[in-house]
Amino acid sequence: MNNKIVTLLALSTVSILTACGGGGGSDSGGSTSSNSVPDGTRYYSITYSQENHSDGFDGSYEEVKNGQILDTRTDKSVGAYILTSSRLYTPKDNEENHIQVHSLNKWTYTWIGNLKKEVNFEVVNLSGVNIFDTLIPGARTEGFSTDGPNFNGQYFLNNDGNLKFPAGSQCLRVVSQKYNQDAFVFNTTDEDRVTYSDGSTYSFEDYDAENKDFINYLNQTDPYGFQYKYLSGNWQGIPWTTIYEVDSGVSSYNTTAVKYQNQNYHADYNSAVEWKAANEIKQYEIILNKSTSLTEEQRKSMRRSIAELKLGCVLFNESAAKAVTSIASISWNN
Fold this sequence. Notes:
Structural class: alpha+beta
Oligomer: single chain
Helix content: 10-25%
Number of strands: 17
């Protein structure tokens, strides 16, 4: 029917705001601002990654001041085009990356201009909870991802895999997140141009027509019962087209494009549809139960993703962070 490889499953890993961490709060005092999070509260990010030559953890923190977390970088250029219904932002425009901490459970992240994302958290009591299974969910039962080396992660598991968080440890787990408006993010390099497999140029009209033709076929034949929606429009003189999964708002890079300065480029669609962790878990489970074509490694990867959503944390409080940094077998990248 067409040459699009559509992967419109909700396979997005939550990218939380910026590289700040947190949960709970600092164990020290501080003046209380107008919201329920005291000034001076530190939010810690602790993430495990598997790079080409080594694996390890990265850690950082930010501090709440007057109910806010501000971006202190010198270079704040957004580095991409961002198209909304009201404006086109260019790569040299500055991001705001401003976070309003309303409470432990609710934050609002202003990315740029009036483009915002609301994130809702669950505050999790980690007292007595296994540290390894919280930091690298699913690895104990499903093994590590085969995407990179795992020597340091395995060393942590072998030596300190049974350690637990002390009393007073907390973290934040994402429950849902929602942009206040739709947006398209794109770049204008040769690699981002929309082309056929032989390298010839795709017209935007042909690309959009394929989306129109494909949506009915997709909804009638999806083996998991997921439903999809086609959208197109023209903002600031820039035509756009996309197909997305209705429960998650997730779209495929191969069904999303914009026409900018007479060139067609693939784009990422940031939908205003609310993403919910519970919905993504349900979709993974449907795929695992119904699919007959997944490899064993693909199944393990999905089960690790489910574990990440159920057991993982994006932000830790100071008690939890201190417990992690005291573990000698953990390898840090920074």
